[in-house]
Amino acid sequence: xxxxxxxxxxxxxxxxxxxxxxxxxxxxxxxxxxxxxxxxxxxxxxxxxxxxxxxxxxxxxxxxxxxxxxxxxxxxxxxxxxxxxxxxxxxxxxxxxxxxxxxxxxxxxxxxxxxxxxxxxxxxxxxxxxxxxxxxxxxxxxxxxxxxxxxxxxxxxxxxxxxxxxxxxxxxxxxxxxxxxxx
Length: 183
Hints:
Blueprint: E1 7-12, H1 17-29, E2 36-41, H2 54-66, H3 71-84, H4 92-101, H5 106-114, H6 119-134, E3 142-147, E4 150-155, H7 160-167, H8 177-182
Organism: Monodon monoceros (Narwhal)
EC number: 2.5.1.18
Catalytic activity: RX + glutathione = an S-substituted glutathione + a halide anion + H(+)
């Protein structure tokens, strides 16, 4: 284990299957590597025009603002809907179903969905997307490692072995033994 604090930022969009790969791997390794994983919902359309995930990413943004403890679960449920079950996550009912499956009450999910177009949510998503661009993002996922006053930007879900090296940690493949024990 390297020196603390070690923070990783994952900029992602649920429309990106490669973001999902990076998300799952980093969620599995965050405790093994003892890193603080900061999930940063980012609008890929702000980087790559016409992606179509605006409402879903705004919803994740308000979840992060008001229920950060549910962000990982809601993100995963949206990925499951679009990439495992071929369901349309641009539809409000699909977003609500993902939130409910992740443990959010129907009423609370509806309330948050009604607020996705507020200036606070729009501005936060824009700020996060701008932050990814400032790190040099040209697509997603982007993982930013903050180590010993240095910042490293890694693009793609196939850079986890390099990330492990930067952290001074062991790479044990996409599903480390500790994660398989929980499955």
